[in-house]
Structures are given as C-alpha cells and as structure tokens.
Amino acid sequence: MNIANIGIDVVDIERTKRILASKTGSNFIASTYTKNEIEYCNGCPVKLSGHFAVKEAVYKALGTGWINGREVEVLHGKDGVPIVKLHGKTKKIAKNKKISASIAYASEIAIAAVVIYE
Question: What is the pLDDT along the chain (118 residues), one digit of tens a residue?
C-alpha cells in the first residue's frame, strides 16, 4: 500500500467547551457528529474535540476542504483505535481508499493524524 496523502489537525478543547455551552451548541453537535459519535462521546468536550480533529484531518488529506462533518464518522475498535467510515459525497471522493487515523490528547488540545492509502 502506498501513501496517497496525510492530514493533521489540532483542536483547542477550550474552544469546543465554549461552542458546546453556547446557544448553537446543540446545532453544532447535530450537524457535525453522527448518532454513533454522539453516543460514544456522550457530551465529553475532549472526545468531541478528538473526533472533530479527525474529520478536519480527513478533509485535509483528501484536499477537498470541509464538506460535511457527518460524512466522516469516527468509530472505535475494541482496542479503542479510531476507525474512519465515510458517507455520501466524501465516500465517493475517497473512492474506497483505506484511511488510518490516530488521536492524541494533551491538557488543552486534541490532535489527529490521518493517512490515506492508494
């Protein structure tokens, strides 16, 4: 497998907390995360930040810019490793390429790295 592209993103967890506490917080959640992600993250700003970072990193790696948060779904395997599942237009653009993701956290940030393979 050859690497087609790489995407990296960093999210400020405090910014996520402010968004969640705002009037538009519930709209942000509904328009950005899938039902599975909402259940997994359970309102946790740290987990939501990590998932958002993966979504951004996927779009950077695809070279498309942001399309729709719900089209990039972050699931987790039994060992906790992130699994990226694409939907809609984003899935068509990716053309069944394999995607690997990693999420890391520090006290104030979540960072994600995504590798897309040909």
Answer: 899 999 999 999 999 999 999 999 999 999 999 999 999 999 999 999 999 999 999 999 999 999 999 999 999 998 999 999 999 999 999 998 999 999 999 999 999 999 999 9
CATH of the domain at 13: 3.90.470.20
The count of structural domains within the chain is: 1
Task: Judge whether 104 and 82 are in contact, CB under 8 Å.
Answer: no
Alpha-carbon gap, residue 50 to 10, rounded angstroms: 8
Give the global pTM: 0.96
